[in-house]
Amino acid sequence: MILVTGGAGYIGSHAVLALLQAGHEVLVLDNLCNSSRASLDRVALIAGRKARFIKGDIRNRALLDELFQRWPITAVMHFAGLKAVGESVRDPLRYYETNVAGSITLCQSMADAGIFRLVFSSSATVYGESVSMPIREDCPTGIPTNPYGQSKLMAENVLKALAHSDPRWSIALLRYFNPIGAHESGLIGEDPNGVPNNLLPYMLQVAVGRQSQLSIYGNDYPTRDGTGIRDYIHVVDLVEGHLCALERLNQSTGVSVWNLGTGQGYSVLEMVRSFEQIIGRSLPVRSVARRPGDIAQCWADPSKALSELQWSAKRGLHAMLADSWRWQKMNPQGYQAEIAVAPAEV
Ligand code: NAD
Ligand code: WQD
């Protein structure tokens, strides 16, 4: 059985689905602070079977001990965490407590229970402002400009030290680039609380009329069209990378770092134009000043994951945007409402 922390969230719910479809038993631990149980009901609908769900907090050591004692857990996929960059600047203690202290509590409980296999959700944000592109795993980590990024780097360092201290640990640090997209059924996807911070969720909400206009942050970057370039990766490709990493943890110990990206960067304007083609109309946009803390460009060298995990991203930009749009159209208010359009009609 695999314990999936944060399994009701955006990436976690797609991972739970992939694990169920691969035949694993799954236990989800999530405090639902940024998600809803509806995501797991939808996962069950697609998979035809359920993950077990416990509403609880990764910072609750007694609960973790009880779960590891009660269920035959052999490995943990650890998605639970807080991820809003701006919020982390306003409330750094909450971010360090959840993302760093929460990860430490989880590892302490795992070690006491004799479970040493862990897949951790890290982020390309740990590279900071890297000078050369594409970014390889051996590029030095930078100085993330916000507490969220710092918390991911700190958690990585804790996990590296842990793996070096005790050879029983087998840990995968997966550095995600920019996950977007949704399962092709349109039943699960990203459902941000409040006003979205990220580009694609914001574009989707403009397209369904929940936001009036997209602000393009900066048109004077040293890039091909002046707007920021990122390596967007389909969430289903991303979670397939997790299953490959999990397999690999069975065969080796120590700590390994893998980039999960496509190796291809797109600018904000390219994203907007491609999305407009999919929805068949233009999107209201305006150019505004750069967003503080943003970097000009960032894309992965994903060749290490290809050679060591036999994993690469298969879905291109069109699939990422079309799948995101299907999710948004079927669920204009996210998980709050019943599905607006039956899957067959989309
Ligand atoms: P998400 O907010 O949708 O999912 C995180 C889940 O963790 C939520 O369901 C939330 O309720 C749960 N959670 C938060 N604190 C918890 C706690 N203390 N105890 C139990 N559950 C808790 O976010 P996501 O996009 O699915 O991200 C998953 C992981 O991937 C996070 O660790 C995030 O930092 C990391 N990551 C995300 C991105 C991205 O762009 N989405 C990029 C890089 C890394
Ligand atoms: C992408 C591009 C913006 C919104 C963030 C976190 C990172 C990681 C992924 C978790 C940039 C531009 C955005 C908008 C815009 N999360 N943009 N208008 O900043 O690459 O990464 O999410 O680990 O840590 O920092 O993603 O989607 O916010 O921005 O023009 O309304 O879109 O300037 O060039 P980012 P993003």
Structure description:
This protein is α/β, with parallel strands linked by helices and 346 residues long. It is built from 11 helices and 14 strands. It has helices at 10-21, 38-47, 61-70, 85-90, 92-113, 147-165, 199-207, 235-251, 268-279, 303-309, 317-330, and strands at residues 2-5, 26-30, 52-55, 75-78, 117-123, 170-176, 178-180, 214-217, 229-230, 232-234, 254-260, 266-267, 285-288, 297-298. The strands form 4 sheets. A 7-stranded parallel β-sheet has the order 3-2-1-4-5-6-11, with helices on both faces. Strand 1 (2-5), helix 1 (10-21) and strand 2 form a beta-alpha-beta unit. The longest helix has 22 residues, at 92-113. The chain starts with a strand and ends in a 16-residue tail after the last helix. The structure holds nicotinamide-adenine-dinucleotide and UDP-4-deoxy-4-formamido-beta-L-arabinopyranose (WQD). Residues 5-6, 8-12, 30-35, 57-59, 79-83, 98, 102, 121, 123, 176, 179 line the site of nicotinamide-adenine-dinucleotide (NAD). Nicotinamide-adenine-dinucleotide (NAD) binds at residues 5-6, 8-12, 30-35, 57-59, 79-83, 98, 102, 121, 123, 176, 179. Residues 2-261 form the NAD-dependent epimerase/dehydratase domain. It comes from Phytopseudomonas seleniipraecipitans. Belongs to the NAD(P)-dependent epimerase/dehydratase family.
